# Entry
Amino acid sequence: MAIFTKENYISQPLTVLPGIGKVKAQQFSSLGVKTVGDLLYHFPRGYQNRGDICLLGEASMMPMSCATLLTVGSVPTSVRLKGSRIMTRFTAFDDSGKCVITFFNQPYLKDVFLPGAVFRFWGRVEKNGGRFTLTSPDYELSGEGRVLPEFRTVYPTTKGLSQKFISQTVAEALSYADLLCDPLPGSVLREYRLEGFADALRGIHFPQTYKDIDGARRRFIFEELFLFSLGMQKSEKRAPLPPEAVLGKADLKPFIALLPYELTGAQKKTLREIYHDMTGARPMTRLICGDVGSGKTVCAAGAIEIALQNGKQAALMVPTEILANQHFSALAPLFEKRGYKTALLTGALSASEKKKVRAALAGHGVDLVIGTHALLTEDTVFDDLALVIADEQHRFGVNQRSALSGKGEEVHTLVMTATPIPRTLALILYNGLDISYIDELPPGRRSVKTYTVDSGYADRLTAFMRKQASEGHQTYVVCPAVSEEEDDGDPQNDNVVPLSFVPGDKALSPIPMKAAVNFSEELQKALPDLRVGFVHGKMKAKDKDAVMKAFAAGEIQILVSTTVIEVGVNVPNATLMVVENAERFGLAQLHQLRGRVGRGSAQSYCVLVSDASPDSPAARRLKTICMTEKGLEIANEDLKLRGPGDFFPTASGGQTRQSGEFSFRIASFCTDSAMPDQAVRAAKALLEQDPDLKDHPATDARMMKLFSITKNTMN
Ligand code: ADP
Ligand code: MG
# Structure
């Protein structure tokens, strides 16, 4: 024990805890838990509310596990079954009746269940004929002054790790609470009335009441927002430009004259803002936020024109090869016509081609380069870079963007995103970048007809999919779950109050969830002459790609998926988007999903399937989606109805994160719209007082960990 100190305890390997050998450590590691700190931050998936005791009569009517309080009525007797299994049975009762309880291969239980003793059971009560039955329930001795905890914690787990074992290990780690250093400074805890680290850990892992969960959750949500904001603020300092680096005036008229269309009002306004920034005394840090198809690219092109007219270089960075090619074929001819040299730089180029492009960049033989991460390598050097543009910002890590802007002395940065972000949240997510909203689509776009139906429409919907296919079009179907067998091997986990639970919100739990794999089988049966495929985040990247390619090529007519298709798919031939259990999705997410159709010339449709009751908050959300296609309006409504949490991406969803991207664990549960603001303020105050976090090593360490980077890659 002596080796542990406040400085090193949290980063110790799990094997320092009793009972953790190589095998267990390996199992934990597959959950991403490698250190004591990882374990403490391995938050529960939810809780079984075992304090909510049901009578046998009530319990038997519920299709899930629940708690009962029963008195043992008979001495357990064991019999040997075929195949050498031993069955042990006894009866127990409450005021509503008598229950037969059965266990297998545990004959010693006759010494546990003594007649007259009271136990709290957790399991699914069934009614067979006139009798209640319980098979292999969980049990805890009750009665006689014994206080049983209300909640049983349920963790995300993996094969070989029982809930009980995880729980014990967490308790073990928590037993050295005095070795824990709070990543939140005391002043922050006091000012925002947050629970201390050890208390909050106890509250989230071993709560006694909902209040414990709530207080702990609040603290960890704040912690995440605070650390995120801290990292963002630390990485983006904006000093004024030296006079010689300030760009001169530029004339955009000849550039605009080359466009085959009239700019929309929103585009003109954005261009004016960009012009103002780029010719000002400080480097531009601007975000263009506009729905898919709103015409962000031409605004970026305007920025490029300003840089090039000043004799400088510009770089446009995009997250995928496909996007790079797309942008290059749209922009290169335009700028070549203007007399500038352009180049494409992606990983797909041969080594010698890459070398050639890099040499040209270093010698200013190229004015505009468009590319992927290949732009970030150390051997990519510019002669005189003045502008960096990142498309689809959310797919780049913070430090990647700053790595690119670091390639020029005084670089203007422009970021484009199709994710609509309310102004108040942009403050935290984008560290107060200036924002241009493009809230207007170019004329002549067809809107996507959007409807909400209940599951009674299933047959008509299948017929509609067939109709789309007969017209040569394709359908997306999105389901909230991967497969119906999706659980962690604990048969009693089906009555778990999720960690995101908001007391008083009963809207979701009773509606059964559609699962992608199973639903695709159903659809294939109903539509035998069509090809139905499925794709989800748990598939291997290779398999996923193959299915997506087949869909893009039109070989698959109906693609059933989880939300993995949210990013980076463009199949203009798809005209129907069906979202099952639409009540489970946030508005912004639904909006993104709808954006997958309506990309071709044919009329497109979005059908939201939901059995949420008409007066529920979920139904109100769906109504919003049906009424407007404006991303920002939807996002603002989402913020009002659900709080800001939906805007903080979680690591789940099967997308691998770029290093340097922040991994949120719990901030997506945030429902308090004042909190992001407070976190930003707290981070700012701390940095003013301790810019390098020298006096706050625990804060610094946790922040670095969440940005999944090491100290020397972030400045
Ligand atoms: P996004 O905002 O999704 O990046 P793009 O910039 O790719 O959108 O623009 C989508 C399409 O709309 C492109 O084909 C582009 O040429 C076209 N477009 C952009 N602005 C206008 C406009 N003002 N009028 C007509 N078409 C436009
Ligand atoms: Mg775009």
About this structure: Residues 310 and 660 are 33 Å apart (CA to CA). The radius of gyration is 29 Å. The domain at 448-479+514-628 is CATH 3.40.50.300 (Rossmann fold).
